Amino acid sequence: MKKGNHYIKNDESGGLGLFINRMQTLFVSLLRIWSIPIVLMLSLASGFTTYYGMSHFITPWIALIITVAIQSIIVICSLEIAGIHWKANRLRYFSVMLSLLIALAASITFSYFKFYEISEQQNIHINRFKEVRLQIDGYLDSIAQIKAKILGEQRKQLEKLSEEVSLAYFGTHPQIPAEYRNQVGEGPFWKHFNQRYQREKARFDQLEQEFSRLDQNVKTLQTNLYKLDKEPASVEQAYQGVVSELQNVQIKFNQLASDIIEKLPKAPELMPYAQFIQEVTPSFSMWQGFSLFAFVCAAMVDFFTVLLSYRLEFTAPGPLTEHEQELVFECLRQFTEFRINGNDELEMVIEKTELERARRYSDWSRMFAVGFLLSRGFLRKIDERTVEFAPNLYPMIAERMGDKLQAIKSQSLAKSTSTENS
Description:
The protein is mostly helical and 422 residues long. The chain contains 11 helices and 4 strands. The chain has 3 domains: 140 residues, no CATH class; 155 residues; 94 residues, Arc Repressor Mutant, subunit A. The protein has a 4-stranded antiparallel beta sheet.
């Protein structure tokens, strides 16, 4: 009974372990299966951005064909790289790697344009607004300086005339003849200077009023600039208002200052409204204003595509049948040189040993098994004489070894039972 209980407990433990192992295998398998649609979706996303950027430089249908080729090369070469050890076939390895790098460079380059457009669209609009505002502010600053200079000179001239009127009233003006000096009162000399003063004062007041009305136009211009920045819904109306008020300011200022100063400031030539709201068009000039964020986004999509495609190669395309598993297990048992390599995988030498060569041993069956497992992805070639186990081969070998051990235990148990009975 103890033995029976012991065997029952082992069976229960084995059943639980087997269940856990199957659940873990199922979970890992589902993750690997899920990697396939993820790779396809990433490839489609990268293909869309690549096609978008390329279609601005060449005919769209040619861009579509090239894009399909680029994405296919990325996935295929990623799978190839995972299954090639550079020591096994250096020429093939470097040719595949070069193809992958060229495809990645083309994909990232043209994808960069789309991500640049998405990430820099707002910044480009802000820069255009800043350019318009700087042009207008520079012009307004120049006319404000000229206005202050004109009014300052006119005010000095008016103060000088006021002083002359005062001197004429007290009879101390230098132009008054000697016989009329020091005669206080509103005489003919005072009237003459006072008339000049009143005319200049009237002109000065009129000039101040005109500049005051000009200030209202400047205020309206600045209000439209504010709306252009803060009210996206009325961009067109605000921009047209900016252009119109800028023209009004220019015309009125030129009318006021043209008779006083010779060199008038040049009004800025604003960009057309269509250019102001124009979307970003992909061009190689985008690389001059390099955007690290856009480049990282473009590279990240292709990086994940390569990474997942690379990982897919570590799994076999499908399980082996019962007869195939038996054939593989028996053939692999014929190899004798095994070791754990630097990748923490079981590695075996597939060449004949010196003894086998001396005996002219035929290794056709086991080499067939090696070639079969290499083509199915259960083995990976390291160099000309060694291969390593892929992760999916271990469970199959473990199951076969477990069956063999169970058969040996059953035989030994049967022998011991027959001995006790005898």
